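Weekly sync, protein design subgroup
Attendees: M.S., D.O., the rotation student, P.L. (late)

Item 1: inverse folding check
M.S. brought a backbone from last month's batch and wanted to see whether the design step gives back something sensible before we order anything. D.O. pointed out we never logged the input encoding, so this time it goes straight into the notes. Structure tokens as presented (251 positions):
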């Protein structure tokens, strides 16, 4: 993992027009190729951090600095809702970002096929969303993000609506993809166990106002599997995150 900083937030605050302080004086450094998870109660500003990094909103004060140039910066965003076009095939849903970017179907076909292969859906390219399970729909959403060949992947509770078995499988699949491509990942979740399993670091946020209360390094080797999930080390990290989260919610 690189020590080169990919994203640096310095004294970042976000105050909405109604006076709500979503974030206050947030300082955060994310190194290139790190997998960082944000956990915290609803309303603590996790998704706000993600949107500000993505450029989907403006900071009220503070700065967001990048360790790579705008030309090198390729961001992709995966939302909790797969948000697929029901009238379009899997292939066309994945192609959408390239189409919006002006790339022709002929030139984009290879990229679409590669993205579908990454998520194991190459045999479903002509299927429609109504024919897919919830987990498969989320795979399509991830493929749609990966088709742009990003180096920074922002994920806002992408597996929150899935059953635990499907969620666990997609966690492992995502981790395997990250090990292959080493994107810089910022992952928002309410799930402590998911955060610890996936991440190099788990950031615990508190509310009123949104702020960072703990930065926990998950010092466990990759690849990770069931042996890690059932280990004492894993349980200890989950306990640490849970304690910090409980303390944050008392204030």
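Designed sequence read out in the meeting:
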């Amino acid at each position: 993992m690189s020590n080169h900083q990919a994203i640096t937030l310095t004294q970042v605050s976000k105050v909405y027009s109604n006076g709500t302080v979503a974030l206050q004086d947030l300082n955060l450094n994310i190194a290139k190729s790190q997998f960082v998870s944000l956990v915290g109660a609803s309303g603590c500003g996790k998704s706000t951090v993600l949107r500000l990094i993505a450029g989907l909103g403006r900071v009220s004060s503070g700065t967001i600095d990048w360790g790579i140039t705008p030309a090198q910066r390729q961001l992709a965003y995966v939302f909790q809702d797969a948000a697929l076009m029901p009238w379009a095939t899997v292939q066309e849903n994945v192609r959408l970002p390239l189409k919006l970017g002006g790339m022709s179907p002929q030139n984009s076909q290879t990229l679409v096929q590669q993205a579908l292969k990454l998520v194991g859906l190459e045999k479903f390219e002509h299927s429609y969303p109504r024919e897919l399970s919830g987990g498969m729909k989320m795979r399509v959403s991830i493929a749609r993000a990966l088709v742009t060949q990003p180096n920074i992947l922002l994920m806002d509770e992408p597996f929150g609506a899935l059953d635990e078995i499907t969620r666990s499988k997609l966690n492992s699949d995502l981790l395997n993809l990250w090990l292959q491509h080493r994107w810089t990942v910022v992952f928002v979740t309410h799930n402590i166990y998911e955060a610890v399993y996936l991440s190099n670091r788990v950031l615990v946020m508190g509310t009123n106002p949104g702020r960072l209360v703990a930065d926990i390094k998950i010092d466990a080797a990759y690849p990770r599997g069931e042996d890690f999930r059932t280990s004492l080390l894993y349980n200890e990290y989950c306990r640490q995150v849970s304690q910090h989260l409980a303390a944050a919610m008392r204030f």
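Discussion: The domain at 5-74+151-249 is CATH 3.40.50.300 (Rossmann fold). The mean pLDDT is 94.
Action: P.L. to compare against the previous round before Friday.
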